[in-house]
Amino acid sequence: MEEKGFDEYIGEFDKIMSEKGYLIPEEKWTPQDEVIYVPKDPFRISIKDAEKLRFKALKYSFSHHYSNNTFYNKLCKEKGIKPEDIKKPEDLVKIPLVPDKFFKDYPEDGRLFAIWLSNIYTGRLPDIYIRKKRPKTEEVIDDFNTSGLTVTLSSGTSGRHTFIPRDGDTIRRGSYSIAKNIIAMIYPFWQRDMVMYKQTDPAGTNLWVGKSGTVLVHLFKETVVGTKIKITPKMVRLSMGGAKNPIERIEAIIIKSVAKRHREKMIEDFLSLLQRVEKDGRKIALVVQPSFMYMIMRVMGEKGISFDLSENGAVITGGGWKISEKDRIPHQRFRDKVKEYFGIPGERILDIYGMVECNTAMIQCPEGHYLHIPYTQMYPMVLDEDLEPKGYGEVGRFAFLEATASSYPSFIISGDEVKLLEHCPVCDRPGPVLEPEIKRAKGEEIRGCAEEMRRLFSISEE
Ligand SMILES: [Zn+2]
User: Fold this and answer.
1) How many angstroms does the Cα of residue 2 sit away from the middle of ligand 1?
2) How far is the CA of 428 from the centre of ligand 1 (A)?
3) Least packed by Cβ within 10 Å: which of 85, 86, 163, 350?
4) Residues within 5 Å of ion ligand 1 by Cβ?
5) Ligand 1 mean position, distance from CA 311 (Å)
6) Distance (Å) from CA 429 to ligand 1 centroid
7) In this predicted model, what pLDDT tens digit does every residue of 91-108 receive, in sequence order?
8) Poorest-confidence range of 35-49, 114-128, 370-384?
């Protein structure tokens, strides 16, 4: 089969994105749009052009959040930083960062939660009608979601969730950039006529990982979804052992037993899909969590099943590498196993790294499996223990300024420990990368900072 040129390949992608409403029309572009719509390949744009776009967008975004976000404005004033202080690219490090924990620090009471959300939201929240007298957090989220705003969340291992409010354009930009990062990186493998297996249902979930994956459905002729169960924060909490009373403990048992039956059915369906695809010689992309693939491969091992997708398969993983409370799978071992069971070569097994606070995602390159950062829209940093930026080649806490979010300040100190490199040691894409194996940062030092934010915040509620 003849290989398409990259321009034609990405042109087809843009055509679909335009049809499905993910392209903001050029006459409406702000610098926040230019950083994602201008580069043809987000990982091949020259450093000079990228930095120019990025500086303009971050300056614009900072000024927007400074002027329109109650809590962020307070934080900036506390730190003595205002938009006029950001004059040149070297000034970007002055932009005040928000610890990710801050977005977890919500009140349990539904009505207070609504107030909390209105304080972390940039701009004016849509008026919502809260249906119940004493609403639960989940009900308030549903009420917001019917008003045009989307409250995206992440499941937390602690049972606490991170809530990030996103408006339509923020979702559009985030979805487009995540999709483009994947499609550009797997060039020339993608074509519209493929099958996508998506482990989790993108519809009907408020989890960002599901929401941001909705865009992928449009890129493939056929999508098969592994599980359609709508995962609620409560379910996640209960399944993680967070039951608070006897009734919840019973609910937890029911959830676990339903989950077990459901899992068996998922494995059965997955294997029959792969048999069909292999027989028909169709291309397939598996969008899965490593732990799920690991479970499938264990069953395949027991049953003596394997597939040959050496030409026609790709695996996109995301969502963490823990397979149990204690164990992580090393990436190389995972790729070796996938090759053994599916015949898919390592260059088509790519991991995505993202988080609910970030409006894009990083993706591994096929050549070296380093995580490439979309550097027109992200200014990455590693911080030392005092939360001061360190240089390239250092290990530290990952932080970033992300330019495309208009509904919340996406200037974040994450809870992850990374090693940031100026260039990929293996491939020739010019931008910065992270080493692929990412860990949670140790220590409690960030808590004081979150506490400071919480106090700031409680004042703004009055
Ligand atoms: Zn690379």
Assistant:
1) 25
2) 7
3) 85
4) 365, 368, 370, 424, 427
5) 22
6) 6
7) 999 999 999 888 888 888
8) 114-128
CA of 371 to the centre of ligand 1 (A): 7
Q: Residue 373 Cα, ligand 1 centroid: separation in angstroms?
A: 10
Contact 35, 377 (CB under 8 A): yes
Centre of ligand 1 to C-alpha 363, Å, is 9
432 Cα to the center of ligand 1, angstroms: 9
Q: What's the 252 CA to ligand 1 centre distance in angstroms?
A: 43
> Is the dihedral angle over the CA atoms 38, 45, 40, 287 positive or is it negative?
negative
Tokens, residue 89: 């690219």
Token pair 């003849």 in the structure block, residue: 2
Q: Can you give the three-state secondary structure of the chain, one letter per residue?
A: CCCCCHHHHHHHHHHHHHHCCCCCCHHHCCHHHHHHHCCCCCCCCCHHHHHHHHHHHHHHHHHHHHHHCHHHHHHHHHHCCCHHHCCCHHHHHHCCCEEHHHHHCCCCCHHHHHHHHHHHCCCCCCCCCCCCCCCCHHHHHHHHHCCCCEEEEECCCCCCCEEEEECHHHHHHHHHHHHHHHHHHCCCCCCCCCEEEEEECCCCCCEHHHHCCHHHHCCCCEEEEEECCCCCHHHHHHHCCCCCCHHHHHHHHHHHHHHHHHHHHHHHHHHHHHHHHHHHCCCEEEEECHHHHHHHHHHHHHHCCCCCCCCCEEEEECCCCECCCCCECCHHHHHHHHHHHHCCCHHHEEEEEECCCCCCEEEECCCCCCEECCCCCEEEEEECCCCCEECCCCEEEEEEEECCCCCCCCEEEEEEEEEEECCCCCCCCCCCEECCCCEECCCCHHHHHHHHHHHHHHHHCC
pLDDT band at 3; cut points 50, 70, 90: low
Q: Which two tokens stand for residue 329?
A: 């799978």
Q: Please tell me the distance between residue 26's alpha carbon and the centre of ligand 1 in angstroms.
A: 31
Name the residue among 377, 373, 375, 399 with its Cα closest to residue 386: 399
- For ligand 1, the distance from its centroid to the CA atom of residue 156, given in whole angstroms, is 30
Centre of ligand 1 from the C-alpha of residue 184, in Å: 13
**Per-residue pLDDT at 46 exceeds 80:** yes
The pLDDT tens digits for 322-338 are: 766 567 789 999 999 99
Average of per-residue pLDDT values in the chain = 87
Q: How many whole angstroms from 423 Cα to the centroid of ligand 1?
A: 8
pTM of structure: 0.90
